[in-house]
Amino acid sequence: xxxxxVIGAGQMGTGIAQVAAQAGCTVQLLDTQPGVALAGKSKLxxxxxxxxxxxxxxxxxxxxxxxxxxxxxxxxxxxEVDVAxxxxxxxxxxxxxxxxxxxxRLAGRSILASNTSSVSITALAAATYRPDRVVxxxxxxxxxxxxxxxxxxxxxxxxxxxxxxxxxxxxxxKQPVEVRESPGFLVNRILIPMLNEAIFALEGGLASxxxxxxxxxxxxxxPMGPLALADLIGLDTVLSICETLHxxxxxxxxxxxxxxxxxVAAGWHGRKAGxxxxxx
Length: 280
Ligand code: NAD
Hints:
Number of helices: 11
Bound molecules: nicotinamide-adenine-dinucleotide
Order of helices and strands: EHEHHEEHEHEEHEHHHHH
Strand order of the largest sheet: 3-2-1-4-5-6-7-8
Number of strands: 8
Shape: globular
Oligomer: single chain
Structural class: alpha/beta
Radius of gyration: 19 Å
Distance between the termini: 38 Å
């Protein structure tokens, strides 16, 4: 089974580490914030314990799964990883810096995958000496529950890199879909303008946050309303994707709602911060 590194142990990275370990991969999990990767692993331990108690998995299987997740740091990352999956915040500069470091530290054959929602895979590839081995692997949130992975080729991504990651997504129990590189790829190109429009509707006083979500749930058969979904994704991430769509596509229909900017400036980043359009 593959040796996978997951860099960034936030909401997405922890979920990716979980599904990779469940599929039998050995996982190196790392984060720059002290204690975050260990906290992510502790949360996973609690969820494994619940699965054992419910009889979903056997005790020794749970123990083996947890043993496969090794918390480490960039200075001690295993050189021979098959695929490194980056899940750090949605900022091109942060991701570019990380890709330069991974390019130096990992074996030449290692694939560098980004879970980015909107950053250009081609631009990340260009920051490395292995552009053919850079690819987008866009999981959905929450990772253990959501089936889709968008696999995105940058211009220089080789066929073998693409196939390797497509197959890895399948082995993780996901349904991969090939998406041509374009800002926001496919899902966010369609989803983010809807979430942004819901924020404009709130800002314009069309209805309360609760009623906007209730109306969209009942009116369009969505499992959760757009404002709750924005809170789940993280409002900092939603703003960043919106800005990328706006800048890259040059169309004002993607301009972020001013209210979204104010929430992000206030640090009300949604569920992970305990407060967004709703309180958690
Ligand atoms: P998050 O804020 O929950 O987690 C990011 C983590 O990365 C933090 O723990 C932070 O300490 C860590 N980090 C920052 N810089 C780092 C570095 N240089 N090296 C290692 N760790 C570092 O964010 P998230 O919601 O998990 O999103 C991560 C990525 O996944 C983003 O690119 C986002 O666009 C993408 N994504 C998010 C969602 C979503 O719904 N939240 C869905 C799909 C993809």
